[in-house]
Amino acid sequence: MSTRRTAIVTGAARGIGAAVAKRLAADGFAVAVLDLDEAACKPVVEDIRSGGGDALAVGADVSDETAVEAAVARVAQELGAPTVLVNNAGIVRDNLLFKMASDDWDAVTNVHLRGAFLMSRAVQRHMTEQRWGRIVNLSSTSALGNRGQANYSAAKAGLQGFTKTLAIELGKFGVTANAVAPGFIETDMTAAAAERMGMSFEDFKASGAAQVPLGRTGRPEDIAHTVSFFASEGAGFVSGQVLYVAGGPCD
């Protein structure tokens, strides 16, 4: 790109977020690697810098309004006005409805939904000033419903409605908003799910792959490629879309 732009990726210390941060850096963006623990972001930042990119580690709780405002202000000052935002930060607190604690409902919706709202609200002012922006929200196939994930499913479905509304409100400023909905992706989060179920990760992946038409589970890089498209100049007429990246069709 002719002029360097700045991207913020939340939940970027590991997994999908780290892969997205590295891919956007390879695409030419300066990247703010944001996660709850700033120290945990540093290996990703060092990896980007070793490849010739520009990156900044930022510690912030995306559900904390004051922390979000401070983080975005810091990114704008140290890297430049952020005009790409990838809302990837997320947690799981799985349980069946009758056993789900209110705190577990609140924790999941606060990170996914409140976090995406606070980050998008803080960053949109930079995008509208620049008359260019890209917001990419990470949803999930769980938005279609998944046993034991009432909180996570509701949050991910909510992100899809949030995405479509942002596309409507911000389109006139040259800002697009899209969502990526991954299926089974090999991350620490899915490894932890396997452990909770008493399965080895290899058996868990094999079980997941058996349900996928392509016959394999996804990798963080699969999602990073998709985010890269949505963040690109070439995706300037694509907005308000939800793209399922799951190795096959989703209902």
Can you describe this structure in just a few lines?
Helix content is 47%, strand content 16%.
Descriptive report:
The chain is α/β, with parallel strands linked by helices and 251 residues long. The protein contains 8 helices and 7 strands, in the order βαβαβαβαβαβαααβ. The chain folds into 2 domains: 6-183 and 220-244, Rossmann fold, CATH 3.40.50.720; 185-217, no CATH class. It has helices at 15-26, 38-50, 65-78, 102-130, 150-170, 188-196, 201-209, 220-231; strands at 6-10, 30-35, 55-59, 82-87, 133-138, 175-182, 242-245. The chain has a 7-stranded parallel β-sheet with strand order 3-2-1-4-5-6-7, sandwiched between helices. Helix 1 crosses helix 8 (220-231) and helix 4 packs parallel to helix 5. The longest helix is centred in the middle third of the chain and has 29 residues, at 102-130.
Notable traits:
16% strand, alpha/beta, 2 domains, Rossmann fold, 251 residues, 7-stranded parallel beta sheet, 47% helix, 8 helices
